[in-house]
Automatic annotation (TrEMBL):
NCBIfam families, sorted: rimI
Name used for this protein in its record: [Ribosomal protein bS18]-alanine N-acetyltransferase
Predominant location category: cytoplasm
Record-annotated N-acetyltransferase domain positions: 3-146
The EC number(s) this enzyme carries: 2.3.1.266
Taxonomic lineage: Bacteria, Bacillati, Actinomycetota, Actinomycetes, Micromonosporales
InterPro entries per the UniProt record, alphabetical: AcTrfase_RimI/Ard1, Acyl_CoA_acyltransferase, Bact_Acetyltransf, GNAT_dom
Tagged with keyword Cytoplasm: yes
Described function: Acetylates the N-terminal alanine of ribosomal protein bS18.
Protein family (similarity comment): Belongs to the acetyltransferase family. RimI subfamily.
Organism annotation: Asanoa siamensis
Principal EC category: transferase
Amino acid sequence: MTVTLSRLRWWHIAELLPIEQDLFGDEKWSAGMFWNELSSGHFYLVAEDEDGRVLGYGGLAVNADEAWIQNIAVRRDAQRQGIGRRMLEALLAEAERQRARAVLLEVAVDNAPAQKLYATYGFEPIGVRRGYYQPSNTDALVMRRD
């Protein structure tokens, strides 16, 4: 399968919503949240297959010299094919391009595969946000890479 990464545009948002629903359920982002991210000028990528079908997306917000990975999501039927890794690498490259000295993210404490991926890229746990994900009240592990 050929996968292309490109900038997320407003017309992609409708295709993100079913992925959000499937992966995150009641904790999914709304269309308005994605619109807000784009209107704020944050850097978002979309992964598409050769037919233009959205397979995943990821976002980065940079403020001064600090960057936050907002999200990385890959459709269940496209997982374990390196798409999340490619998006993470592209987000890290953008953080470097924007001269961020640190990149941070939050990940559910029960999402061991994502934590393992982030650790392979030098992210280290620095704290926990209790009850961060709502309505499940799941804690978030905060990870940082300098």
